[in-house]
Write a structure and sequence with these properties.
This protein starts with a strand and ends with a strand. A hairpin with a 4-residue loop joins strand 7 and strand 8. With 112 residues, the protein is mainly beta. The chain contains no helices and eleven strands. It is globular. Strands 2, 4, 5, 6, 9, 10 and 11 form a seven-stranded mixed beta sheet that branches. The chain has a four-stranded antiparallel beta sheet with strand order 1-3-8-7, with no helix packed on it.
Length: 112
């Protein structure tokens, strides 16, 4: 079955950077678009970024454009989310998702 394991979250100061990873297994990774979502405290889960199977096409939520980059390694079955210039409002649990499945998420806290 689909398994997704996110990692790389943590506590970072405003303006800092983090690189999240999502290790995938249980499906043919290279043939599927991959997605990152986030859920802030008291809020619903919202899409952050999507990358097509080949990595050639990427889409971002307007709120993160210019500060976040999604990428993937189809040999390592891993999708990444590079986040720069982080703000307190970026505090959330970040999840990767595919085929209706989600990982457990990784907590990102932006605070001084």
């Amino acid at each position: 079955q689909v398994q997704l394991v996110e990692s790389g979250g943590g506590l970072v100061q405003p303006g800092g950077s983090l690189r999240l990873s999502c290790a995938a297994s249980g499906f043919t990774f290279r043939t599927y678009s991959m997605n990152w979502y986030r859920q802030a405290p008291g809020m619903g889960r919202e899409p952050v970024a999507t990358i097509r199977s080949s990595g050639s096409n990427r889409n971002y939520a307007d709120s993160v454009k210019g500060r976040i980059t999604i990428s993937r390694d189809n040999y390592m079955n891993t999708v990444y989310l590079q986040m720069n210039s982080l703000k307190p409002e970026n505090t959330a649990v970040y999840y990767c998702g595919v085929l209706g499945s989600w990982g457990r998420g990784t907590q990102v806290t932006v605070s001084s």
